[in-house]
Amino acid sequence: xxxxxxxxxxxxxxxxxxxxxxxxxxxxxxxxxxxxxxxxxxxxxxxxxxxxxxxxxxxxxxxxxxxxxxxxxxxxxxxxxxxxxxxxxxxxxxxxxxxxxxxxxxxxxxxxxxxxxxxxxxxxxxxxxxxxxxxxxxxxxxxxxxxxxxxxxxxxxxxxxxxxxxxxxxxxxxxxxxxxxxxxxxxxxxxxxxxxxxxxxxxxxxxxxxxxxxxxxxxxxxxxxxx
Length: 227
Fold this sequence. Notes:
By secondary structure, the chain is mostly helical. 82% of the residues lie in helices and 0% in strands. It is found in: Cell inner membrane; Cell membrane. Its main location: membrane.
């Protein structure tokens, strides 16, 4: 590596790490929280036993939403929110647009995880709640949700790690997250290879930290299950 390349890599390091902590992580966390709320709502709609007309409409909307999101690229979804909606007179700032795009995407995929986790709880648990006078939501909140949550933790943790990596797509809507900073430094010298490799290494380091956190959370849940 030449001195010029080494200096470029060193100069880009701290700004990229800073953008990772101050933009990429908060963006991933905010999107994940919103996405989980959407996912829980969609999952409950899809497993609810109600058969009235309102539920049937909501069920159709939920299935269409999941199918549409899972069948289109995340990049297209974010671009529609930021670049497409202005055609309808709806203007959204870059960070909120990115959060909306990521949240909708996370909600669709996580809803399938949560739905599967809820369905993994034996039906006898529902019947036990109903037998002591609990309503549907009370049974879900007090009996089903805690058990389903343990099942859903590993895949949802993987979803969050994937979401953190996907925040690099926010650069498309001009959010100055970690990869956007890498692009800015690479454009200064038109020497893209070392900067992009450095960005990849930094993403990997962040993800390794998340992997370790995920492992500790799973071990803690496993200890509780054994007890």
